[in-house]
Amino acid sequence: MIGSANGRPISITGLGCYVPERILTNDELAEMVDTSDEWIVERTGIRERRIAAPEQAMSDLALPACKQALEQAGLDGADLDLIIMATVTPDMAFPATAAILGDQLGAVDAACYDLSAGCTGFMYALAQAYGMLAGGLAERALVVGGDVLSKILDWTDRSTMVLFGDGAGAVVLQNVEAGGFLGFELGAEGAGGIHLWLPGSGSRVFDDPEKYVKMNGREVFKFATRVLVSSAEKVLKECGKSVEDVDVYVPHQANVRIIDHAARKLGIPEERIVVNVDRYGNTSSGSIPLALADAEADGRLQKGSLVLMTGMGAGLTWGSSLIEWTNGGMIAA
Ligand SMILES: CC(C)(COP(=O)(O)OP(=O)(O)OC[C@H]1O[C@@H](n2cnc3c(N)ncnc32)[C@H](O)[C@@H]1OP(=O)(O)O)[C@@H](O)C(=O)NCCC(=O)NCCS
User: Fold this and answer.
1) H-helix or E-strand containing 64?
2) Which of 221, 223, 228, 316 to mutate to test the pocket of ligand 1 (most atoms within 8 A of CB)?
3) 159 C-alpha vs ligand 1 centroid, how far in Å?
4) What is the pLDDT of residue 329?
5) Active site residue 6
6) Of 93, 74, 83, whose CA–CA distance to 14 is shortest?
7) Residue 183's beta-bridge partner residues?
8) Are strands 23-25 and 180-188 parallel, antiparallel or unpaired?
9) How confident is the model over 88-102, as pLDDT tens digits?
10) Which of 27, 35, 43, 284 should be mutated for ligand 1, with most atoms under 8 A from CB?
11) pTM here?
12) DSSP string of 127-167?
């Protein structure tokens, strides 16, 4: 799916994020399995990650991020007409975590649902919310991305447990005077689904139901390096922009080698790339909004900045979006 914005300007008007307090270092992991800080840093760029407390579920991580995003946008929960929560680790299969958040935020007029597209979930959710606003179905949407992958990892499997962390981010989407989203490109290759999956998590019955994440790292690596480049190129072309126009590049934070590979192929200079995988690991749907929050904190998101975001993950899925940052700029209600 590909398309460029041709209707009203819609942008991100509020941004928030949250990570749990507990920091888990590579050295601690090396006490649990046969790995080392050196191996993890060299192969992934990850130095530490945040891990949720046993009692913390998805909505507990998402709520502070949502509140921060709403505050920045100057809105209350009651102003929202849409909440989409992108996650593969909801509090439970149902009710939707978005509905739990809607209740906690007092969003009495909002449609609330969860969306499952692996680590690409936040990009899919952004595109959906954009479409709802562009079509006039909604005016103020909260898009939340996050995961608590620590709850579904096999802590004896060194090939997956070193990669992931917990965290959440949220953005508010509203109609703005000018600027905002320029276009989206989303896709999926279901045939590759078995390379990153949670087999025993649904209605398919297996002889030996596996309740932890299983991954073929090499296949996912090949897929990731390919689609990060192709999706970015497609969305830029669709929007009539080139790599030189990109001020801030926010790729999915899975592995610094994947990010470096994509940036090199695309020709994006290092100073324009946002990287936080060293501190958070791969937080799945939380990755891009957390990286956006980092870019905002270090002053890189200026009014008029062209921001390219690309996610990829389970599905296998990918998604890109191009946005001209507006620093608020919402149309007064
Ligand atoms: C998982 C990943 C880091 C492995 O790195 P790699 O350089 O491809 O390493 P390989 O898979 O070739 O494995 C090399 C060796 O390291 C071993 N190894 C795997 N994990 C290890 C760990 N944590 N510590 C030490 N050794 C490890 C492997 O068992 C393998 O040993 P072998 O050669 O004896 O079989 C890499 O493939 C990757 O990042 N893939 C993408 C994963 C991803 O991003 N998933 C989420 C997408 S949203």
Assistant:
1) helix 58-73
2) 221
3) 5
4) 67
5) no
6) 74
7) 4, 322
8) unpaired
9) 999 999 999 999 999
10) 43
11) 0.96
12) HHHHHHHHTTS-SEEEEEEEEEGGGTS-TT-HHHHTTB-EE
Comparing CA positions, the residue from 95, 101, 182 lying closest to residue 134 is 182
Distance 15 CA to ligand 1 centre (A): 33
Predicted local distance difference test score (pLDDT) of residue 327:
79
Asked if residue 258 has pLDDT above 70, the reply is yes
175 is catalytic: no
* β-pairing verdict for 82-86 and 140-148: parallel
Ligand 1 center from residue 86 Cα (angstroms): 27
End-to-end CA distance of the chain: 32
Ligand 1 cavity residues, CB under 6 Å: 35, 39-40, 43-44, 119, 158-159, 162-163, 196, 215, 217-218, 220-221, 224, 254-255, 282, 313
DSSP state of 14: E
Q: Which residue has the tokens 């590049």?
A: 249
The amino acid at residue 179 is G
CA–CA distance, 106 with 298 (Å, rounded to integer): 32
Separation CA 12–CA 85 (nearest Å)? 16
Sheet holding 248-251, edge to edge: 2-4, 180-188, 317-324, 306-313, 248-251
User: Among all chains, which residue has been given the structure tokens 């994509």?
Assistant: 262
Task: Find the helix packing angle between 121-134 and 287-297, rounded to 10°.
Answer: 80
**143-to-126, 194, 246, 303, 321 alpha-carbon distances in Å:** 6, 28, 23, 21, 14
Lowest model confidence (mean pLDDT) among 175-179, 187-191, 194-198, 329-333: 329-333
282 is catalytic: yes
